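S1.2 Input.
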Amino acid sequence: MEPKELQKLIDFIANSGLDEVNIETEQFKISTKRNSAVQTRVEQVYAAAPQQAPAPAAPAVAPVAAPVATPVAVESNLITIKSPMIGTFYSSANPESEDFVTVGSEIAKGKPVCIIEAMKLFNEIESDISGRIVKILVSNATPVEFDQPLFLVEPV
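S1.3 Output.
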């Protein structure tokens, strides 16, 4: 299943109002439950092969090529950094680390502002503008949609 098809399916399920959905085919299995937060699990099913190696224990961090966060004018001089993909928003590299940015932080073009986990791949999102963070629009460890506003930035 292609990522765009998967996104459309997840959006359809999210907008359907159902609390739980399970879909299983020969190629994949999707299980979605809606509580206070939306949880979705997708498993790709393959035929067993003796040469198949087990999946790595820790997910890899993959840098995302620029331009990743598309700025769009919001109010007067503020610019919005939007999510370049669907996934889970993380404000720091790990729970013990400091946040990449906080309100009032100065950011530079190419500086990481957050991580978005998509399909067990951690994507470092870099700013393509320089400025000061005025507002953080999402909470840590929450799901985000494609093109969802993440930060308001005052350009310098």
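S1.4 Remarks. The mean pLDDT is 77.
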